[in-house]
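Long-time lurker. I teach an intro course on protein structure, and each term I like to show students one example going from raw sequence to a predicted 3D structure in token notation. This year I'd like something fresh instead of my usual example. Would anyone be willing to generate the tokens for the chain below so I can use it in lecture? Attribution to the forum is fine with me.
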Amino acid sequence: MKTTKKLLVCILTFALLFSIAISSFAAEKPEELRILYATVEAGSEAILSVVDDYEAETGIKVTVDTFPYNSLQEKVFSELTQKSDYYDLICVDTPWVPQIVQHLEPMTKYIKKGKNSELLQLDDFITKVFLDTDVFDVDAPYKQPPAMDKVDVDKITDAGFDIIGLPIQSNVLTVSYRKDLFENPKYQAEFKEKFGRELTIPETMEEYLDIAKFFTRDTDGDGEIDLYGTTLMAKRHESVMCDFKSFLSTFGGRLFDENMKPVLNNEKGQQALKYYGDWINKYKVTPPGTLTYSWDEVATVYGSGKVAMAMNYHDMKLEPNVNGKEGYFMFPGKEINGKINRGPHFGSWGLSISKYSKNKDAAYDLAVWLTSAKNQEKYLKYKQHVTRQSAYEAAKSIDDPLTREYYAVMGESLKVGVGRPRITTYNRVSETIQIAVNDYLVGRKSLEEALDEAANKIEKIMERAGYYN
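-- Reply from a regular --
Happy to contribute to a lecture. Here you go:
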């Protein structure tokens, strides 16, 4: 009898342990993982191209739902506000993080456990991109992460920060230019005679402006200017905010001080906005429609061959009928204390785990896999704006010289880029700056009046949001 009871206890115990083991295994390896992702904004084509590989390797089905930018933002906020467990991984644009960071599962604990460390390779990410995109103080997301040359998890956590995602795609302001014009012997001789130096890629804002002036001309002799030196994205739109911020950072200025007080109206802010406006109104080196241009219009105008240089967040191409030749270079800098300071705007997308996912371990594994070096190298085929140093190194072997050139310029630009302010009120602050810049450009307000009014409004916005309590 006792033997029977012991046997029964052993069987029940084994059954219980087996059940627990099966449950644990099921939790670690779900049947399906779901990703909420952007469309072309974050390179969905590249991500979708490797999903089948992951399914074959793991046996886990991966479903990727893609939405264009505005629809994606609404969907992300809605899913997280409702604490929905439907999506496991979410593609997050950096400006959204301060508003949703409490809904994201920190990855730090998974990283510290050494989970998937052979694929993770944190020190391979471009440090500036990684810190700006995915390192936040969850309780005070406005704070900037500690400075470091390589991603250092201990330094991050010791400073009170967490890693809330992994960077999957990054955009930075670069310049596309008409290489055929720069290489034209006639133009080279003319430029050297006029400016006393060679017609080469500009390093500084002043050199850039000289070239823009030089190429603004009537090329067919009908008395009308048909070629302009450059473009700007001066429409009352997020693009003009990014334009102004790039000029401001390059001039050594910033939007906020350490106490989150707006300082865009100081001397550096005034210099940056005046220089920006002078390109349009004083030197007239931009096309007449510049005040209606955002990133899409700039791409169209450049493609038509009507400008010698144009700034944007992707590689732009000339239309076949232009019979031109493209090239790329970094957004110009400003010499400050003997060094060239550069501040092109950049922004990134990160892959984050929903705090409400029931498959967090597996979601982390998938995020590491999708952002891994081996996959980022595959993404080059789709011209994905990769985030790892090894991927940019691999891009040096791309057959097409123009694509190689663009990756080289983008990789160097990301190392010096300046991200957006980490505030929950970003949209209202951006709109306020857009209005101020527009008011100045159209002559509605003076330089000082436009910036002072913007700074006062921004301070009130920040105060109402509780930043000064």
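Some talking points for your students: The chain has a mean pLDDT of 94. The chain has two domains: 29-172+347-416, 174-344+425-464.
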